[in-house]
Design brief:
There is one protein chain. 3% of the residues lie in helices and 63% in strands. The chain has 441 residues and is mainly β. It has a single domain (2-440), classed as Outer membrane protein transport protein (OMPP1/FadL/TodX) (Porin). The N and C termini lie far apart (65 Å). The chain has a 14-stranded antiparallel β-barrel. Strands 12-15 form a two-stranded antiparallel sheet. A hairpin with a 6-residue loop joins strand 20 (412-413) and strand 21 (420-421). It has 2 helices and 22 strands.
Amino acid sequence: MLSFLIYFSTLLYSQDSHYWSNQYGTSGALLGGNVVGGVNDLSATYYNPGTLVLLSDTVSVESTNSFEFIFLKAENSLNKNLNLTQTNLRPSPSMFAVKLPFFSLKNHRLAISYLTKTDFDFDISGNLISGIQNPTYNFVSEEVKIITHLKEIWFGLTWSYSLNKNLGIGVSNYFAIRSQNGRVQLFDGEFSLLNTGNSIAFMEYNYYNVRLLWKIGVAWKMNKWNFGLTVTTPSINLFGKGNAGLTSTVFIDNNTGNPVSKSLISNYQEGLSSEFKSPVSIALGTKYTFDHTTIYFSLEWFDSVHPFHIMNPKNFIGQSDGKEYSFQSLFTSKNLMNFGMGIKHIFSSKFILYSGFSTDNSYYRDKSNNSFIQSTWDIFHMNAGGKLLYGNFNFTFGVGYSFSLNYFRKVLQLPNTPETLNPENIDYRKIKGVFGLEYKF
């Protein structure tokens, strides 16, 4: 039972394995984030720092907020009749950026920014009660609950310099602060004429980590065309701490009063050093304007991350059986490419319409036994909305819809048994409302 719990727990820890799940900026949020080659607001600090110095308007403060409704259902999670579901309504990750007005050197611009790179709450549960009317008096009860929260925020300082009126370069220096905690609870009980058994187990962890990374950008304007190139460096680990714990009890009785199997295993380790790594990525983008319409296109390639352990808890000896057990905290990712396009149409001097589409592939590496990835499905994002221009204020509003390919790529093999759980069906949907504000002076 313990070996099953350890494997099951590590498979169901966290749900985020995507790089393009969030879009930033009053325009970028509605264009699907496809603005590497043509960002026109302070989200340039994230999408392409080289563009900051080329901004034609005087936007100095920008904030974007949104709310999202998420529905997730996993079928055949532990048993063919045990399904796990989650619904969640909450604020969506946001961005805030300010251009520094006191930095007035010729051809230079400075800005500071804050963005929520990842903010994922996962609280999913399921239960199964069966066999109540079974003539053999078999009774089975199963309950699973998985809770995890993953958050990563970036604080950045951006410098941008214009080589000429059409060519800009820039770099954003980010401090990335990542924190994650989670708990998996499992109850399994069975009663029959032959035996009675139950098992109760949980596994939990928490950690935080601070690292450093840079995003370097080049932006070029040429008549109706704009082009952009960015390189995001691999992160440099600074420091972090974490804790991990595991408890499992198993009891099986053959109804003679004498237990035939029982065990107790418990261990908790504190003050563990933590590490996290993010890969190098290269993004290309362009935009083309004709009449009152602009078309955007972006793609970004992400390198893989070789396997490493976020924490390294020591192996421990089970109290009841004297066997050695270990925690799993493996993380790895595969290389991938995302792409998308967006369209902007100016209806009048007071109203602009936006739409966008983008892919968001999972970086889960097949058969990797990755301890901190569960969301192995690929996602598609669609966005649409508008911008109202009134005096020194621009108001943005819109809606986004995301969905998955409804496929779970992990094949779960229960240790010490011949049984294999086939790939599971995943139904993932997200609806997001976007609200943004720009102020010019």
